[in-house]
Design goal:
With 291 residues, this protein is mainly α. It is built from 14 helices and no strands. It has 2 domains: 156 residues, Orthogonal Bundle (Tetracycline Repressor, domain 2); 135 residues. Helix 3 runs antiparallel to helix 8, helix 10 runs antiparallel to helix 12 and helix 12 packs antiparallel against helix 14.
Length: 291
Amino acid sequence: MLRGLIKTMRPHQWVKNLFVLAPVIFAQELFDLRKVLGALAGFACFSLLASAVYVLNDLVDVDADRAHPVKKNRPIASGAVTERAAALVMIALGVVALGAGWFVSAWFLASLAGYLANNIAYSFGLKRVAYVDVLSIALGFELRVVAGSFAADVPPSLYLLIVTFLLATFLGLGKRMHELVVQERTGSASSRKVLERYSRRAVNVLLWITGTATFATYCVYTLDPHTRAAFGTDLLIVTSVFLLVGVLRFIHLVRNRPESESPTEEMLRDGPFLATGVLGVVTTIAIIYLT
């Protein structure tokens, strides 16, 4: 059962919580141990709370998952993990995350609470409202960045908040597009009823709009005189290439990997995407701190 519980917690999805570290990186505070430790504590709290949310989602969706050709193999849906055990783990993870969050800062705890409230609303209602469900997903990423600012005690960048929201909306739309592609190619009804209220054409248009807006906004940020003055370099625009490749690769995965459970999981298995991401992060940090 332990292996099933760990799988239900989805530790591979903790990569999403790296958004918590973004404020301290772009604030040029990586050499300030106190701020870095605060950001890492924030990452740990969000990872635990995110796992509690994943368990909650699986508990709420257990009946629908049992009727799904792939999701029926999830630990709770398959019976490998009992609902009672999952509920106890969910509560424990939530209590530890929120309790630890209090020691980081009161504002960070408020961000954690907002993230939890948003996900509870998503699980019990918002996920059934077309397009609002995607905005709820985007809000979760935005709260990660805000929380990271509070945890590291650095001011949030308006550009960072805008790019994060656009990127998260893009990823959420990609998830819906992937589900629509799977539904169309398999000819089977999806367990996610909200898909009936989505138009594949509209999602495709919005996917390209948000992807383009994310790339364009980031380019404007790198070329902004205040950004160039703060970092003392004009080279940050180079990193936009990695973002562009990542956006295009994600769209490719969404459209061409219907056998995967979700585009997020496919991203974490895709060599070109991972290589682009790692090179992008390394290049960005090198330009910010070494030029």
